[in-house]
Structures are given as structure tokens and as C-alpha cells.
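seq:
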Amino acid sequence: MKQLITLILTLYFISFRASYAQPEDRLEHRVWNKTPIHIVLPVGEERRIDFPLSVELQVPASIKTMSERIQITESGSVYWMASQSFKRQRVNAVTATGYSYILDIEARPKGHKHPIAIVDERIPVEDSKTGKPAKQPYDYDYVDLVRFAAQSVYAPDRLIKDLPGVRRLEINADHLPLVKGGDLLTEPMAQWVASTIPSLYVTAVRVTSNSLNKTTLDPRLLRGDFLAASSQHAYVNAAGEQGDTTTWYLISDKPLSEVSP
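struct:
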């Protein structure tokens, strides 16, 4: 798990807003930094991957047999549709000018469909066809996103200010085992994506005590590939007592479903 940053916020109002942005309406940016880029394909649905330049894909035969189609355009876009689920496998993408990218591709029944753009800072803006957005990207940090998520969850609607470039997404609200041990129960509440480079996600997670004792929230016990974690309170009281529930805000560079266990 990547290094976690813990921030404690104190807010006192509770409310929800019901505005959602469909994941298919946005473009997610992943920055190439020599680390394989993990991409999940939705089974039976096409997903687009944009590269800065035209590429040639080196796809293992095992993946080809489980893909309905893999179409590559001259502009550097790859349209990929998986016909069945498969576990993570490595794919190389190579440009004619010698740049290469390593992808870890897998397919799931309920994978996201929104397009992904690979950003490569080695390629000049004027040469890149898809890696850089036409307009100036937003420059939000973890604190900005956590503060916005906390206000969205706890503040009255009249006090909530929209954060340009940040949109709320639909999320599966089923319980997830995000914390090691059984002392805490976690349930996703809401998720937002920020149009930064790379794209950043912030997820509000309800945390409920499942213990007879007071429990301190320790981000080191989180299960998942998170960039930062911020809790509304430093601890929760014993199950059934007042104060046995709080909220955790988790920052990631991919949707919660792709970074959680």
C-alpha cells in the first residue's frame, strides 16, 4: 500500500446531494512513470485507451482469444472489448518513435467503461495527440479533495460550493472489507473524480464500530492501494454507543473498485 497521509477534520452537519456524473462522460488521465498502468476492461463493453502517439500493441495470445475485438487507430486510440473475464496480464504498447508503455490488463464483468488517456511528459505538447488536454488541467491536492468530500457529506446543501473539475460518480454501496481485522465495518457512501493529471478519486466511506471497545482509526490497517486517508474523527466508540460511527475519506488514482480488495 502506498504511503498514507492522515488528516482529521471536524464538521457537524449531515446531508447528501444527489447529483451524479456518469463514468462514461469523462476522460481519466493516467501518467506514465515507468510503472505498469493497470486497466480493467468491462466484459462485453468497449473501452477506449488513448496514447500520446500511434502505437503497436504486443498482446499475448491468451488475451486475444478472450477479446471480441482490439481496434487501433492511427491517432493512437485503442478500442478494446473483452468477451470474457481474465486475470491481469501484461501488454506492451510501442510507438514508431521508440516510446513504450507497459499495461497490466484484466477484464471483469462490471469494469468501468470511461476512456483512459495515457499522459507522457517526455513527449512535447505539440507532438502529442491525446496525452495532454486542450485546456489547463486542475491542480487540486489531497487536502482540497478531502475538504470538498467532507463538506459534501456533512454540510447543508446551501453551504456546499461546487469544485470546478470535480464530479460525483455512482458507486456500489455494498460493504467492503477495507480494514484488517473485524473491529471496523466499512461501507462506501459516495465517490468523486477530479480532472487533474493524473486523475484523482476521493471516496467517502462510513466506518462503524464492531467492537466492544473504543477503536482508534489507524490508516496502516487499510486494505487497498490508496494514496491518502483522512478520518472525520480519530476514533469510534464501542458498538452501540453514541459516536460509534464516523467517515473515512480515501484518495486514490483509480476508482475504488479497482484499488480495493
